[in-house]
Amino acid sequence: MNVDHTLAAADSWRRLPAAQQPSWPDPDALRAVTAELETYPPLVFAGECDELRDQLAAVARGEAFVLQGGDCAETFDGVSADQVRDKLKTLLQMSAVLTYATAVPVVKIGRIAGQYSKPRSQPTETRGGVELPTYRGDSVNGLAFTAEARTPDPERLKRMYHSSSATLNLIRAFATGGYADLRQVHEWNRDFVAGSPIGERYERLARGIDDALSFLEACGADPSQFHSAGIYASHEALLLDYEAALTRTDLRTGSAYAVSGHLLWIGERTRQLDGAHVEYASKVRNPIAVKLGPTTTPDDALALIDRLDPDREPGRLSFIARMGKDRILDVLPDLVEKVTASGAQVAWISDPMHGNTFTAPSGHKTRHFDDVLAEVRGFFDVHHALGTHPGGIHIELTGDNVTECVGGGDEVLVDDLHRRYETACDPRLNRFQSLDLAFQVAELVRDRPLVGGFARQPVAA
Ligand SMILES: O=C[C@H](O)[C@H](O)COP(=O)(O)O
Ligand SMILES: C=C(OP(=O)(O)O)C(=O)O
After folding, report:
1. ipTM given for this complex
2. Residue of the nearest CA to atom 8 in ligand 1?
3. Residues of the chain where predicted confidence (pLDDT) is lower than 50
4. Where does the record place a coiled coil (predicted)?
5. What DSSP string describes 318-377?
6. Cβ contact 386:336 at 8 Å
7. What is the distance between the alpha carbons of residues 290 and 304, in angstroms, rounded to a whole number?
8. Cα–Cα distance between 350 and 263 in angstroms, integer?
9. Would you state the pLDDT for residue 207?
10. Which atom of ligand 2 is nearest the CA belonging to 426?
11. Residue 407 DSSP symbol
């Protein structure tokens, strides 16, 4: 089927209902901002998006694994070299462990350089009898609970662009400037294993990576091959006025691409088949992901494939399952089975964060590390039972030692939550919990080798 991927066609979403859009108080001000954004240079290039689509095609075929992670909500204040570096460091460390364990390439995708907009359950928030618009991300309004901060301001869309641009600049520099060197990354993991209360458990895996690196060097492998890393940027394509202003024609092909990020995803709250988000995503050539919550039916999934991947092009569409640890075993098997039977080759990714949130007695919104792990385990179990590929994990994380999620090897207790609860929206795994998760996923893979990976001897003692 031929989809019209021209820039003119990419505007068709405007005729449809768009969920979760801010009530901008001044439509003229919004139009002035989007007109200005239309003149800005692209943040990413179409060729890079194609490259990611090819890598995701390998995931869909069972030959690669995705690690997608980053903040729930990036903030403008969080655009600093230290914060971006520490997030990348965490992703790179997790990726080294996962590459070794899965024995397939790990496609590294940040929730980064554009993750500034949040869908919310409620349009307003009430505190002490005062009702104000809910915080919808730094791209829309401020977190402070004042009428001024909470009023949507389209000027923020320009700050979103510039913050994304500065972040991408740092990512490109860190990824290619030696910071991502595999030896270096492995040294950090060694420090983690040595300094972690449960490090012993991972000692054997770390030694295995040491041996593999020494073996490669002894064989004369070119060390420069391991000196840099490809890192892609992704975010939820929520604010369609922003996305539309950053949609451009690729001169090579004449097709429209979102140039705000390499991969865009559609959230659980905006994946309506007759809604504007699916329509917009159907018209751009970027790789697209859709979050699938516990109410998703196989018919929903098949209809999304028809809308977003009518040509059944591996790498074009990824499904990010976020069912919750109690629902994953009930809901996911039927979806995977029917999608597989349809002949579509999507990449399946597990988001074990969004279905496992609860409010602690202190009032903090949190998640338990064990619940996160339980959902990932369920995801692997389902794919193992069906002989399909568990294609990756999607994690809300930060490189800082925050106390937002409870549990983990270096246990964060409910009573610790107040110490460093810094997220602007949902709770993130801290650096330690993120690395712990990567090692635990490595152990899951040991027990359930990937279809396309090499059989490997046990990685944990
Ligand atoms: O990150 C996801 C959503 O934006 C978030 O879970 C919404 O949270 P809320 O239910 O507090 O609005
Ligand atoms: C809002 C998000 O997720 P979901 O759509 O799955 O709720 C998110 O990932 O930020």
Report:
1. 0.98
2. 120
3. 454-461
4. none
5. EEEE---TTTHHHHHHHHHHHHHHTT--PEEEE--STTSEEE-TTS-EEEBHHHHHHHHH
6. yes
7. 8
8. 16
9. 84
10. 10
11. B
Residues belonging to the chain: 461
List the beta bridge partners of residue 106: 65
Q: With 0-12 CB in 10 A as exposed, 13-18 as middle and 19+ as buried, what is 427?
A: buried
By DSSP bridging, strand 347-350 and strand 317-321 are: parallel
Helices (H) and strands (E) in the chain, counts: 13, 14
Contact 355, 325 (CB under 8 A): yes
**DSSP states of 51-68:** HHHHHHHHHHTTS-EEEE
| 103, 111 Cβ separation under 8 angstroms | no
Residue pointed to by tokens 């040294």 = 187
| Ligand 2 atom nearest 115 alpha carbon | 10
Report which of 410, 403, 409, 323 is spatially closest to residue 367, judged by C-alpha positions: 403
Q: Is the CB of 323 under 6 A from ligand 1?
A: no
Q: Is the Cβ atom of 396 under 6 angstroms away from ligand 2?
A: no
Ligand nearest to the CA of 140: 1
C-alpha–C-alpha distance, residues 395 and 122, integer Å? 23
What does the radius of gyration of the chain's CA atoms come to, in whole angstroms? 21
Q: Is the CB of 73 under 6 A from ligand 1?
A: no
**Distance from the Cα of residue 184 to its chain's centroid:** 24
**Residue 82, number of CB atoms within 10 A of its CB:** 11
Among candidate residues 109, 60, 124, the one with its CA nearest the CA of residue 317: 60
Give me the amino acid identity at 170. L
pLDDT per residue as tens digits for the range 65-82 = 999 999 999 999 999 999
Return d(Cα 293, Cα 305) in angstroms, integer: 16
214 Cβ contact partners less than 8 Å away, ≥ 6 residues apart: none
- C-alpha 19 – ligand 1 centre gap (Å): 14
Three-point CA angle 209, 212, 214, nearest 5°: 110
Q: Please name each of the domains of the chain with its CATH number.
A: 9-180+228-447 (3.20.20.70)
- Report which protein residue has its CA nearest ligand 1's atom 6: 426
Cβ-proximal residues to 449 (8 Å cutoff; 6+ apart), any chain: 455, 456
What residues have CB less than 8 Å from 389, skipping those under 6 apart? 59, 60, 61, 62, 348, 383, 450, 451, 452
pLDDT of residue 455: 39
Whether the predicted model's global pTM rises above the 0.90 cut: yes
